[in-house]
Amino acid sequence: MNQSAQLFSRARAVIPGGVNSPVRAFRNVDGDPFFVQSAKGAYITDADGRQLIDYIGTWGPAILGHAPEPVLNAVHAAVNRGLGYGIPAPSEVDMAEMIVRMVPSVEKVRMVNSGTEATMSAIRLARGYTGRRKIIKFIGCYHGHVDSLLVAAGSGALTFGEPDSAGVPREMTQLTITVPYNDREAVKKAFELHGRDIAAVILEPFPANAGLYFPQNGFLHFLRKITRQYDSLLIFDEVMTGFRVAPGGVQQLHGITPDLTCMGKVIGGGLPVGAFGGRAEIMDCLSPLGSVYQAGTLSGNPVAMAAGLAQLRELLEGNAYDRLEQLGARLEAGIREAIRKHGRNYTFHRAGSMFCLFFTEEEVYDLDTAQKASKALFKPFFWNMLEQGVYFAPSPYETGFISLAHTEEDIDRTVEAVHASLSRLG
Ligand code: PMP
């Protein structure tokens, strides 16, 4: 038995399914996960010494690549000043100022420890601010494992066929209205029926947890308009897209001002961090100023703040976003050519450094169309890529992430592997 197999066997005995988060399991590709020994730049090394080009990037945070020097240095310096205080520290102010500067709609922000906490808190705040109960969520969007948001969810919940989780009583989700993404009529109807009791619409502005697809025909502008019309809040969950598709996320790209924004991933530089922010008038409803309670012993942890700040500073220097776009465009061109040579017309989506290959030739714009992608083709493709030293997420519903540490050579090697893997599919 190799090291990973031994570790997985030990893990299964003491950790449910052997993993601390379901997306790490290989259930959807009928195998066992490998264990990572270390990661640097665009590469991970597994417990058996195998080196892989990584397109998971810690599921988003590793935008500079793994263990970048500026982040490591900042973390080492912070550690030397203590690991956490539970008392205000300067780096929390630096981080809040940085987020307010980068994200157009955010006037005030509060730090939390995960994306789940960010969405959970934003929903509570929206309800507290509006005095309303209902929320609209889109089918296939994933917002973490918050009870009221585990309805028709994406990511691992979808991969493992449990978009509505056991353990969430129906009463907890009765106030959640679910509608298909990009479906204006369904949204209009929900507002017509429940408008005066809808606290907020929450969405991933580019859904990236059921594959990756995009708003069509001004869908985001439509949502902004209808939420204003009914005095409901618009919540962008930019946990994936924030600081990734542009310094200010999708809201910057599309020129939309949501009322609240959920953030995570990149601002932690790999350490556990999330945040939610928005209009000052709404954020000031939070305790201790207002009556909406929200808290966290470790929130704004100085080591995590140091890592995130160092990463954001690097991103703002030079031409990081142009470079991510260049690398993304190179990968896209290569993969499209490979698909064409293979004689197919599979759908490939990309936004800067985020990408997804769907094994379907049909247009993908919501969960239903994303699910037309063939799992039967994805599985051998995934294993073929891994055999050639390229690690894509072990699920057809996840998005790939390119980092600034990927080189043209890495991208070209990946494209070669895609050519070979597709041709092996026959
Ligand atoms: N929102 C979105 C859009 C996400 O992609 C995720 C996780 N991938 C979350 C929320 C939850 O974040 P976390 O896993 O940090 O709780």
Please state how the strands of the largest beta sheet are arranged side by side.
4-10-9-8-7-5-6
Question: Which range best describes the helical content: under 10%, 10-25%, 25-40%, 40-55%, 55-70% or over 70%?
Answer: 25-40%
Bound molecules: 4'-deoxy-4'-aminopyridoxal-5'-phosphate
Taking the alpha carbons of the first and last residues, their distance comes to 31 Å
Give the low-confidence spans. none
The CATH class of the domain at 69-316 is Alpha Beta
What is the alpha-carbon Rg in Å?
21 Å
Structural class comes to: alpha/beta
Overall pLDDT level: 96
User: Could you name the CATH topology of the domain at 69-316?
Assistant: Aspartate Aminotransferase, domain 2
Assembly type of the shown chains? single chain
- The number of helical elements comes to 15
Biggest sheet details: 7 strands, mixed
Shape call:
globular
H/E topology pattern: HEEEHHEHEHHEHEHEHEEHHHEEHHEEH
User: CATH-wise, what's the superfamily of the domain at 69-316?
Assistant: Type I PLP-dependent aspartate aminotransferase-like (Major domain)
Reported CATH architecture of the domain at 69-316: 3-Layer(aba) Sandwich
Query: How much of the polypeptide forms β-strand, as a percent range?
Result: 15-25%
